[in-house]
């Protein structure tokens, strides 16, 4: 059975072109950048090449943040080309839903007395068949190394999907907060960039102790305040991020 096809993200070409521009401005080669962010330079440059061409389908914010840090850039350098997490389909109109419910209501059909007797006969329950035994699980005949590799890929894909789902929730919560507080639209991008950096930090410290994650997130606020953002709004965005990525610690 094949893997489930996920919808591709939009805007990866623009993001890759911006990352390449930042790398060239910093004077670093693809191999040097791969080494700085922790990849094997002999093979990691190929990933950097694909990332800059927009050919990495689901790049993690952790990798993007590492590239920016290695080139001496900030999130604000790519905030206008961040990839889209997927379009949300519009809800159906009330009229269409009413029409659908009407079409689901069965119309009574005219029947003769004989047909009604036959229908009652057909309603008499027959003997319930016994459930068939579950089919035996197919044995995986692949070598153990291939099985472990496939399991790692599956876990990585699951983590990536869960991460971008959390990012989408934080983005929506941040946008709603900014609208409710009537924050000027010219500042929305900066607040959303701060929310993305909180998501990346929270995901990177998923297995760390709560106090370690809290200290790392707290260090993100002073630079944002220095850029003119409101400390109270930043704290609310950080709290929303914690509720999505660390629900257990946020409850306590």
UniProtKB/TrEMBL annotation:
Residues 87-147 are annotated as: Disordered. Residues 19-78 form the HTH cro/C1-type domain. One of its GO terms (molecular function) is DNA binding. SMART domains: HTH_XRE. Pfam families: HTH_31. This is Helix-turn-helix domain-containing protein. It comes from candidate division WOR-3 bacterium.
């Amino acid at each position: 059975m094949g893997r489930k096809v996920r919808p591709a993200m939009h805007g990866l070409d623009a993001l890759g072109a911006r990352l390449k521009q930042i790398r060239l401005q910093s004077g670093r080669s693809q191999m040097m950048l791969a080494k700085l962010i922790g990849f094997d330079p002999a093979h990691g440059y190929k990933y950097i090449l694909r990332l800059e061409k927009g050919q990495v389908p689901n790049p993690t914010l952790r990798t993007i943040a590492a590239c920016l840090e290695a080139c001496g850039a900030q999130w604000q350098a790519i905030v206008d080309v961040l990839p889209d997490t997927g379009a949300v389909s519009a809800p159906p109109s009330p009229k269409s839903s009413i029409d659908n419910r009407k079409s689901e209501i069965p119309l009574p059909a005219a029947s003769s007395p004989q047909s009604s007797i036959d229908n009652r006969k057909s309603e008499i329950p027959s003997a319930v068949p016994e459930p068939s035994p579950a089919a035996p699980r197919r044995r995986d005949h692949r070598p153990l190394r291939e099985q472990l590799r496939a399991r790692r890929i599956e876990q990585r894909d699951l983590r990536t999907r869960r991460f971008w789902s959390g990012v989408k929730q934080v983005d929506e919560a941040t946008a709603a907060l900014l609208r409710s507080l009537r924050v000027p639209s010219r500042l929305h991008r900066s607040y959303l960039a701060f929310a993305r950096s909180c998501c990346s930090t929270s995901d990177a410290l998923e297995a760390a102790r709560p106090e370690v994650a809290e200290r790392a997130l707290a260090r993100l606020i002073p630079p944002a305040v220095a850029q003119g953002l409101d400390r109270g709004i930043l704290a609310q965005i950080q709290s929303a991020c914690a509720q999505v990525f660390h629900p257990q610690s946020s409850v306590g």
